[in-house]
Amino acid sequence: MTTLTGKVALVTGGARGIGAGIALRLAQDGADVALTYRQSADQAATVVRRVEALGRRALAIQADSADPAAVQEAVDRTAAELGRLDILVNNAGVFLVGAVDQLGTDELERTLAVNVRAPYVAARAAARHLGDGGRIISIGSNVGERAVFPGLSLYSMSKTALAGLTRGLARELGPRGITVNLVNPGPTDTDTNPADGPNAAAIAGFTALGRYARPADIAATVAHLATPDAAYVTGAVVNVDGGFTS
After folding, report:
1. In this predicted model, what pLDDT tens digit does every residue of 68-79 receive, in sequence order?
2. How far apart are alpha carbons 13 and 38 in whole angstroms?
3. Which of 73, 90, 128, 192 is in the most buried spot, having the most CB atoms within 10 Å?
4. Number of folded domains in the chain?
5. Positions marked catalytic
6. What is the rounded distance in angstroms from the CA atom of residue 154 to the CA atom of residue 100?
7. Residue 155 neighbours by CB under 8 Å, 6+ apart
8. Coil, strand or helix: which one is 73?
9. Is residue 2 assigned to a domain?
10. Do residues 107 and 156 make contact, with C-beta atoms less than 8 angstroms apart?
11. How far is CA 103 from CA 151, 158, 160, 190, in A?
12. Which structural domain, as residue segments, surrounds residue 114?
């Protein structure tokens, strides 16, 4: 598939898990891809090699999404080194769980910095580079709509905020031909939430399909939203959760 030939994408947190799956799918569809990582340098290098093996350009940028200046620089560097920016995927996130009376201010501030402020800063920076047909796609979570276990208040709050950001940006950037959408994954088989983990059976049981997603399942929806075929989809919240929220 070459539906994204000539496009440049930036995937934050693209070194592993869902982010890596998205980076590779966008490259398979023709895009050159930049990705950010905080500590996973070896994994980022692996994704870069796989993107390049597909004949696309790739760029790995070390950036802590809790640092607004680093987020801004990653966006600007992508546009400068790869020549343009067409697609921003806000994927980087932190998953800090615990009872509301046990999580402290440090956990609160890091969660909001990475899960809420960073997507806003990245979108603000990207808006200066995106042209007609530009795409901003954020990765939320199924627990933004349905928190089935205790201890998810902080994380759920941070992911729910992305729905408001998505709708507001869709209105603001729509006149420029830029679409903004939110994808909410359900339980997905990654190294931080493996499908064979100790609580996986219970978690999978909350879905209608009774199983975890693969990163490629989430990436397929993101890739569609990035194409011209999705030009009339904006301000949308798309649940890719196996029926978790049904």
Report:
1. 999 999 999 999
2. 8
3. 90
4. 1
5. 155
6. 8
7. 95, 96, 97, 111, 115, 141, 143
8. helix
9. no
10. no
11. 9, 14, 19, 25
12. 8-240
